[in-house]
Amino acid sequence: MTKLPTWADVVLVPVISLILAALVSAVVLLAIGQDPMQALSVMVNGAIMTPYGWGYTLYYATSFIFTGLSVTVAYHAGLFNIGSEGQAQIGGLGVALCCLFLPWPHWTLALVGAMLAASAFGAAWAAIPAYLQAKRGSHIVITTIMFNYIAAALMIYILVDFLRPTGSMDPASARFAATTALPKFHELPLISDLFLRYTAEGAVRLDPQGNPMYQKVPANISFFLALLACVAVWVLLWHTRLGYMIRAFGKSDKAARYAGISAVKITMITMLISGGLAGLMAINNVMGQAGRLLQNSAEGAGFIGIAVALMGRNHPLGVVMAAILFGFLYQGGAALGLETTIPMELRIVVQGLVILFTGALDHMVRMMLGLVFRPRQA
Amino acid sequence: MAGAIEPGRQVSAAPFAIELKGISKAFGPVQANKDISIQVAKGSIHGIIGENGAGKSTLMSILYGFYKADSGEILIDGQATSIPDSQSAIRAGIGMVFQHFKLVQNFTVLENIILGAEDGALLAPSISKARKTLAELAREYELDVDPDAVIEDLSVGHQQRVEILKALYRQANILILDEPTGVLTPAEADHLFRILRGLKDQGKTIILITHKLREIMEITDTVSVMRRGQMTATVKTAETNPEQLAELMVGRKVLLRVDKTPAQPGRTILEVENLRVTDEQGVERLRGVNLQIRAGEILGIAGVAGNGQSELLEVLGGIERGTGTIRMNGVELDLSGRHSDGQSRRADGIAHVPEDRQVLGLIMDFAAWENVAFGYHHAPEFQKNALLMDNAALRADCEAKMARFDVRPPIPSLAAKNFSGGNQQKIVVAREIERNPDLLLIGQPTRGVDIGAIEFIHKQIVALRDAGKAVLLVSVELDEIMSLSDRVAVMFDGRIMGERDPATTDERELGLMMAGIAGESAQ
Amino acid sequence: MDYATFLQILDTTLRLATPLLFACLAGLYSERAGIFDIGLEGKMLMAAMCAGSVAFLTGSVWLGVLAAIGGSLVFALVHGLASITFRGNQLISGVALNFVASGITILVTLALFNQGGRTPPLEGGARMQEITLPLADTLRGVPLLGPFYADVISGHPLLVYVGLLLVPATWWLLYRTRFGLRLRAVGENPASVDTAGVSVARMRFAAVLIAGVLCGLAGAYMATGLQAGFGREMTAGRGYIALAALIFAKWRPWHALWACLLFGFFQSLALRPDVLENLGMKIPVPALDALPYVLTVIVLAGLVGKAIPPRAGGEPYVKER
User: Fold this and answer.
1) Could you tell me the pTM of the whole model?
2) Most buried in the list A275, B3, C38, C62, measured by CB within 10 Å?
3) Domain B263-349+437-523 = CATH 3.40.50.2300
């Protein structure tokens, strides 16, 4: 097979995969009698043409950055963590317990506490599969899948039997205290004006008290934490000894042994970090958006993390871009569901196709590119 | 050459069981087989001997349909035969016993035997037929194995018999065995040879690939010597001797004499007593090795690959675990506990240039500058602060090393896999030698390395010795051992056969010791 | 708990175990040949959608079953292409196909029926008819065994019996035929098959396609037997429970049956919390839901015997030099 130039491997493979996924999706749309171009324009309008759309796109992207980083860190150690979903759910439990049962005077303190709780809970949920992999060689892919389901069952049990307020029928916790609410984009200085609501005449809309009204969006300051997490992961992987050891172990466990890098230690630490990152996602959706713990709070973001990591070539910068792309896909998909007869589940199809082309058919994509890059025969 | 069989002067009128004419095969720029011709008479045992990488296995893979030769012809019983896949090889009556057995571990012997050679869609008839055939074969050739035993419960010797039975069950007339004794005990090897003689008596033709001179002398009728992809000679075994074969195998290349002053050994750096290593299959690879190395000397370990040298390096380097005693500067090292790892060894002043740099010594996907810290990533000079590594320092260090060792191209950000073998080795050697270790372990320092780099690497090793450090050199290149070492120890079958002074010994004597023929008694 | 309730639970167990069994056997063929299949779930879902839709549109359950097999086979083919032909990551391929199935089933049913991702309820010939086994009514009077025969064994759709018969059939195929020998060998040591002159890729494709057919049957039973139509995400993780059962059974056909019955039993208990409460046991329903997974982790951890997957599982076969 022709060897591709590095830039082609890094840039073209994901781009071509994305185009292939888009083409297959277009075929699916045509097959169910829809217009792919119309779908695209609705998605673009709904997700990125207005500040309101961005307020959702970036909210989704925030969650995907965390789970994408979770998958990325594990990947660099040669571990395929499918358990980010469960780890994010359990992280949500940590956030909920922290917000419900501790009296926080201000959201900044609550945020610090919730981040600690979220990452600790997420890491704890990753610890058992990690230990079983490191010590007993149990395949981490299978154990993390099992732990996703165990987490789901555990969450139902805890929500229904413990956290559900008396009299409520919803499998959800009580609302967190207002002091724990994280500022959303429309409440942040500097950018809040973007979200002002206007009357038909173009004047700012005012509520009965005479204050300006804003379009409420779920994106919140967690987004900036997610970006910070990207920087942190980048520093960790490429600027610390631990990152060096993680990557060396992931590339070759034999050579790692030569260098005196402990397989057990690296597997454990990496999975704790990976689980912690997945858990951190909960500050976005549970604390930032819902303000209470719902059943299935992660809503599949853990799985999207796989697509995001694959698409982003397991690099934090790539993860941010892929996460925003998937945020667009999610918000755009929602717009489709609202404005057209195209179901928003289209986004799951695209997500699956992206995973398929970038993660399983990548050799095929490379072969196709290899034909293009084949040295010309004289 | 005395005893060489010239083509065209056939001893008998019968066609050869197997005849290769001008076989060539290249993998990219590497010419694995170059214009190879052999003739093997029916009912004879023909040996093919050569060092690792001489091209023996490639040749046999061509015969068994794994590779297609670039050019050349294969004749079976005088008939030109094309062998595009294994199925055709089997049909042509060729059976192959691979070095790594192709058995299904949790199947029974019978199931393995019939796999791919079933008589119909249902197993029962095939099984009972195989059971009968097996009993006959067992009687005929001393090939007794329990037909209902599960492979993983069998000893390696028995597993090998199953492989032979598999070939015979497919009515192979030509049996190729690739390094068959590598995994066997001496007693098992003797048994194997009895079996092979029995097969020969029944008119089967056997090709034995090995790098062990003793086996060639003991059992073959004719022998071909391969070196660097070429067939250097074919002789009758009765008309040759181990010395001649050793010479043919190693070749008389231009000796790379290294300018070095006589050694001035100082205090003892490394003492090894009764060192033993058992591998995952439970085979004892090191069987009580004793040696010592003093400051300012190079101890060369000669030996045919696979006689325990790799394990010796790995247990000293902290990769393998073992039993016995290793003392470094008088301090006993941990051989099996928490401190038996590469990090602890480095802290004890042991540096290690591993035999297989691509698997152990380098992370091939890492940039050169990342690889210069490999194993030394905890070193203080590579840290910016408690948290961060100093990547700039690593790059600078890499640049300096590349300049001093003339690594080309001198680009620190290039991934290790994009350097040539010689330059990869220079990166590893630079990394290990420049740590100024008390003891340098160095395995196959110049395997796959171009001439210019060989000389350079040799000079570095000698310079380290002259700086008063101890060096343990393992190499299958006898030349290299002879020209670099101050003392030569020969390993055979997990033990040190004896020690010689390179100034007073010669390749012939060492060759015999490497073949396990003469040890201390030869003194 | 009276005997009638007990029989009722067993009856439900058998119903719920059937899709697990089909999927579990599907996984068994595939993984025994060395191809990991996380995509059981997606294939089942796809099959259930095809079965429900075609059965409704044609009014024929059997055309529905054929459609189910076809839909599942398409996914199996993609999985084979990715993991055998292009030597891709088998786990990622499975995960990806599950997502594609999850989305596409909803897209298609919405487009066809516009009922929120469901098919309209199936009736008459579009559903699998329950079969009363011979003498069921005659023998009902026999104490203990009579009602057991009449209420538990008898009275299921045909596919339930097909599933049960597939267990000995699979055992026979794997252990008594040339095909089975080669299939098992290719999952343990593909080099042994290759050097014996048999195509590794062909064997693996055969196994993956058999898995496709069986997942097709699993999905068809879900949509036309167990329930009267397709509903969104109706497989609800059964593909993963089947995977768990496969590991629990250590990749052996008879054990797969027992594992699926056990997990089916848990599911059926989860539907009847009152029964456990009457017995004085207060086991939360989520605990019953999680039990198969917990048991599987325990097996994986090697606490109760070691689950050793087929040795070549998950690895694309590359001829060694």
Assistant:
1) 0.87
2) A275
3) no
